[in-house]
């Protein structure tokens, strides 16, 4: 590995570890809970219609009784209660590809469905601060799990990654000495890990956490080092999208700050996500 690759590895490690150590049992916040965020006046807002989807558990799904549930759904309800506007709030599910148009056409007022923030979208919409940051993780068979992630240790084995993804690009940028094995999709990659064809895989932390806790994994694997973050490769994180020049995004920023201070944001995280993700 060249000097630039080693410096990139050090930069990533320095950026990640202090933030992860700050709160290893909840989401990595992108803001300081001690800051002051004024509450904008939303008294003239007649109603707040949150738009989300149905088919992205644990964020949005129908429970056994057919009720709209999930992390994002509960978060929307907590925000309404914190902002004192519960009576004005509604939550509606639409197909994912209809959310942006519905917001533009005023068929809703806020989209809470994990839409990736892009420069193009920022010219058309406002966004709340990120309330959940996405991570990348190494997952290994348990004999290697828990070991530190270092260039020397990982270079000795094969690391599986899904081809043509942000995680492949991130792996190449930060760990250029590794021996990547490319797979067409996550299922093929995880099958290879269980079969011992690769020693470790690298991918989206949340998806790997749910798989490793599932019956399919059969208690085979655990995280190895990390988590690792990169705004460049993984995006800003999960936000709430609103129309521009309206007070809702700023109001949600205030509400998210209050939920973080009270511990309710962390309670939601513990309710819906596997332990050890962060």
How are the strands of the largest sheet arranged?
4-1-5-12-6
- What's the total helix number? 11
Indicate the structural class: alpha/beta
Q: Tell me the count of domains.
A: 2
How would you explain this protein's 3D organization?
The protein is an alpha/beta fold. The chain contains eleven helices and twelve strands. It has helices spanning 3-22, 71-83, 99-104, 119-122, 151-155, 166-174, 186-194, 205-212, 231-234, 248-262, 264-272, and strands at residues 48-52, 61-62, 68-69, 89-93, 110-111, 126-127, 136-141, 158-162, 179-183, 200-204, 221-223, 241-242. Helix 2 (71-83) packs antiparallel against helix 11. 36% of the residues are buried. Residues 1-26 have low confidence and may be disordered.
Short description:
This protein is 37% helix and 16% strand.
List keywords for this structure.
single chain, 278 residues, alpha/beta, D-Maltodextrin-Binding Protein, domain 2, 2 domains, 16% strand, elongated, disordered N terminus
SSE blueprint and pairings:
Blueprint: H1 3-22, E1 48-52, E2 61-62, E3 68-69, H2 71-83, E4 89-93, H3 99-104, E5 110-111, H4 119-122, E6 126-127, E7 136-141, H5 151-155, E8 158-162, H6 166-174, E9 179-183, H7 186-194, E10 200-204, H8 205-212, E11 221-223, H9 231-234, E12 241-242, H10 248-262, H11 264-272
Parallel strand pairs: 1-4, 1-5, 8-9, 8-10
Antiparallel strand pairs: 2-3, 5-12, 6-12, 7-10, 7-11
Helix pairs in contact: 2-10, 2-11
């Amino acid at each position: 590995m060249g000097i630039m690759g080693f410096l990139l590895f050090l930069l990533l490690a320095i950026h990640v570890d202090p933030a992860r150590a700050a709160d290893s049992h909840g989401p990595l916040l992108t803001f300081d809970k001690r800051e002051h965020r004024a509450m904008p006046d939303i008294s003239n807002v007649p109603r707040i219609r949150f738009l989300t989807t149905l088919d992205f558990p644990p964020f949005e799904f129908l429970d056994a009784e057919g009720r709209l549930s999930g992390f994002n759904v509960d978060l929307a309800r907590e925000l309404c209660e914190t902002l004192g506007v519960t009576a004005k709030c509604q939550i509606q599910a639409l197909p994912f590809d209809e959310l942006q148009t519905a917001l533009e056409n005023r068929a809703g007022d806020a989209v809470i469905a994990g839409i990736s923030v892009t420069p193009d979208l920022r010219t058309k919409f406002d966004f709340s601060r990120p309330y959940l940051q996405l991570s990348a993780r190494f997952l290994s068979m348990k004999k290697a799990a828990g070991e530190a992630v270092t260039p020397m240790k990982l270079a000795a084995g094969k690391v599986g990654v899904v081809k043509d993804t942000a995680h492949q690009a991130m792996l190449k940028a930060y760990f250029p000495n590794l021996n990547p094995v490319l797979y067409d999709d996550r299922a093929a990659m995880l099958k290879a890990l269980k079969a011992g064809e690769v020693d470790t895989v690298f991918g989206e932390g949340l998806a790997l956490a749910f798989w490793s806790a599932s019956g399919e994994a059969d208690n085979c694997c655990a995280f190895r080092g990390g988590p690792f973050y990169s705004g460049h490769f993984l995006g800003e994180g999960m936000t709430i999208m609103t129309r521009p020049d309206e007070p809702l995004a700023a109001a949600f920023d205030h509400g998210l700050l209050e939920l973080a201070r009270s511990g309710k944001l962390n309670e939601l995280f513990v309710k819906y996500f596997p332990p050890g993700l962060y």
